[in-house]
Amino acid sequence: MSRLARRTGITPATLRTLARRPRLWPATVATARSMVPEGWWRRAPFLPLPDKRWLHFRMVTAYGGDGSAEPEVDDVVTYIEWRHQVMAGRGTLD
Fold first, then answer.
1. End-to-end CA distance of the chain, in Å?
2. Are 65 and 58 contacting, i.e. CB atoms less than 8 angstroms apart?
3. Residues with Cβ within 8 Å of residue 42, at least 6 apart in sequence
4. Does the global pTM surpass 0.90?
């Protein structure tokens, strides 16, 4: 698993795919914001990153094994497309 994926759950390939889909950018940002714990600025590394334990749990529940699998590009894009549709229908999820 790449360092980026280990800390954020997003691979470079996923970022490239999402960059080519501007209509999904608002849902991508909303999704990223929803994964950041409250009060992130009070804890090192003082960056808005998902909690490592939460991310590990999500990788185990999604892909099984020891949680070291990288999220599949199609899985992430499908989720963000779903979130985009929900946001469009209800205005927001958050």
1. 29
2. no
3. none
4. no
Q: Over the stretch 15-67, which tens digit does the pLDDT of each residue have?
A: 999 999 999 998 899 888 888 889 988 988 888 888 888 888 988 998 999 98
Sign of CA dihedral 38, 45, 80, 64: negative
Which of 14, 32, 10, 12 has the alpha carbon at shortest distance from 83?
32
| Sign of the alpha-carbon dihedral angle for 23, 27, 29, 31 | negative
Burial status of residue 23 (CB atoms within 10 A of its CB: 0-12, 13-18, 19 or more): exposed
Structure-block tokens of residue 17:
């795919």
The number of beta carbons lying within 10 Å of the beta carbon of residue 67 is 16
Residue by residue, DSSP assigns 5-50 as HHHHS--HHHHHHHHT-GGGHHHHHHHHHHHSPTTGGGSTT-S---
